[in-house]
Amino acid sequence: MATPRVPAMAFVLALFATACGAQPSSAPTTPPATTTTTAASSPSSTSAQPTAEVPEQLKFTAKTVDGTNFDGASLAGRPAVLWFWAPWCPKCQREAPGMAKAAKDLGASVTFLGVAALDQVPAMQGFVAKYDLKSFQHIADTESAVWKRFGVTAQPAYAFVDKNGKVDVVTTQLSEQDLRDRLSKLT
Known about the structure:
alpha/beta; two-stranded antiparallel sheet; 5 helices
């Protein structure tokens, strides 16, 4: 009895094409490029130190590609950019040198966080090493849970978080200059 390999292979190819930014034929051809949310008001704290409101999207915990724990709430109250990428994605590979340079140049004023998905941890570690991205942390989002929190369905994508908790998600590829322009608005 023959196995249904052709439909399974077609599904896998469609999944990979969609994951690297291609739009399936049934999807809208012009998806919204950005979405913005703001942190909800929270009750005041009883401690003497004011605490930053944590946007809903930053309420997550994950493991980094190096196996350490990461708490998304640690990004609240300061400018940050989350870069959503996959190791095998050609667009991400082209963007990686620009991200590395931006993180080295602006890392003192903006927190950078890579959010890797759609592959296994060893491939993610190899990508970080190959493109010299060790100047900032990268989450191993093997279940795409963080991607889902931000509404990201394809890479590359970005989430820019300002110090007040406003989150701006960009679901299109950015040039190095566009990235730097958006980062400068956070500081």
